[in-house]
Amino acid sequence: MDNILVVDDEQEVGNFLSFLLEEKGYRVSVAESGKQTLDLLNDHKFGLAMLDVRLPDANGLDLLKEIKQKLPLCKVIIMTGYSTVKTAVEAIKLGANDYIEKPFEDIDQLEVQIDALFNDKDYTENTIESLAHGVGFIIGQQAKMKHLVTLAYKIASKNVNVLIEGETGTGKEVLARFIHQASARRDQPFIGINCGALSHALLESELFGHEKGAFTGAVNQRSGIFEIASQGTLLLDEIAEMTPAVQVKLLRVLETREFMRVGGEKPLRTNTRILAASHANLGETVRQQQFREDLFYRLDVVKLQIPSLRERNKDIPLFVSYFLEKNSSSLTFSDEAMNLLKNYSWPGNVRELANTVTQLTTLMDGEKTTITPADLPEKIILGNEIQTREKNSSQPVQTTDDDTTDLKSFLNAWENHMIHSLEDLRNFDFNHIENQIKELEHRVETTFVKQALIEADGNRKEAAHLLNISQRKFRYLLNEKNKED
Ligand SMILES: Nc1ncnc2c1ncn2[C@@H]1O[C@H](COP(=O)(O)OP(=O)(O)OP(=O)(O)O)[C@@H](O)[C@H]1O
């Protein structure tokens, strides 16, 4: 169906698109308000709707939902100004196929976009899969990850900044490579830089370059990444670690596309696309006044939050096969061993899993073909023990027998787990450790509260007295923290 609906309250936009698209043989209807849109949707069918997100009488996102509900097959392109790009990204999450920025700068590109949508060439799972495969990025089967990658694919070709958040080892850098590969910049350099790993002076010089003699040791002039990758993509990893002075300079680049080499006086222009990554919640860092708010809003145009491996543990077998293949190994995992992998919390996420598989393939003796629980690292067995205990402790407690023994073995497993974490710091992030500490607190409190109740024959006042805490606090521990038996 070659009917197109254009929704825009600016008459010139409607006129321009009608002229452009009718010349190409499409039939165009124009609505200038939400009401007119709904009227047209009642009487006509459309193959494509081009929708402005700001209308005097309607919210573009509500109209999008209306269109998708009435005409599920109708493709939707959101039309947006720079200030509403975030809304356009929301619209894509809600099912819009693409967005374009107004004023239209590249009419040819606009025509290509429209034709592609009509011919169903916009994007397919296959394209995404093969691009991901090309950069060694396993998407997995979980809907959350599929949506995230589809969004990443759709915004890859736009010049918007992207903020990628996720725990350590979740694949922020691989996702950034995927975005670069899916963009028109794919033949230009992709450069990743870890803002936490370099001193202030070195980071500044890496990004902006320096003039000869700018500082001791600057014997030659040197170009920075903003020059070298002016047409490429820059991943600023661990952006929360960037010093305030470099943050100011970066903000200037984002606002004006201009920068100066260290020690230089001539402004240079750059077109580098910036992707930022952080394992910390950058918004939280802003609230704690450790990161500039204005820079945060510039970077956070599109946020891609990668889930932890725990949240996608169903994909663990897929990851394992991938890493086995990467190591050219023909080993397999027994069902029991695979279940242990699935139930482990993977604080170091995919990186930790990849390292574990590599270690197993190098350590296994040549005779063995199947990995069993006995071959797995101790941390995985201990981690599973803790998980099981966590699960049991969240169920209503029926008996109080053996509580002390239970606490003892929990403390043993907990202590071992902590020691392992400390010895394997690269694979741990502190959020996980903090959760484990909370769990410890919870377990210890539970045991004390239960024991006090037993000794006080169920009398809460007496039990509170035994623990030397107020009745109020005892009630809180019992009720609020779900410790009632
Ligand atoms: N989806 C994935 N598919 C394949 N490999 C992955 C995936 N996610 C992560 N990895 C692998 O895990 C390791 C860590 O990935 P990456 O460096 O992208 O994580 P990160 O989130 O950027 O980590 P950090 O926060 O420590 O910088 C790499 O070896 C990468 O290849």
TrEMBL record:
Entry-linked Pfam families: AAA_lid_14, Response_reg, Sigma54_activat
Keyword Transcription part of the UniProt annotation: yes
Modified residues (4-aspartylphosphate): D52
Ranges of residues in domain Response regulatory: 3-117
Database matches in PROSITE patterns: RESPONSE_REGULATORY, SIGMA54_INTERACT_1, SIGMA54_INTERACT_3, SIGMA54_INTERACT_4
UniProt KW keywords: ATP-binding, Nucleotide-binding, Phosphoprotein, Transcription, Transcription regulation
Superkingdom of the organism of origin: Bacteria
Keyword Nucleotide-binding belongs to the record: yes
Residue span, Sigma-54 factor interaction domain: 138-362
Protein name: Two-component system NtrC family response regulator
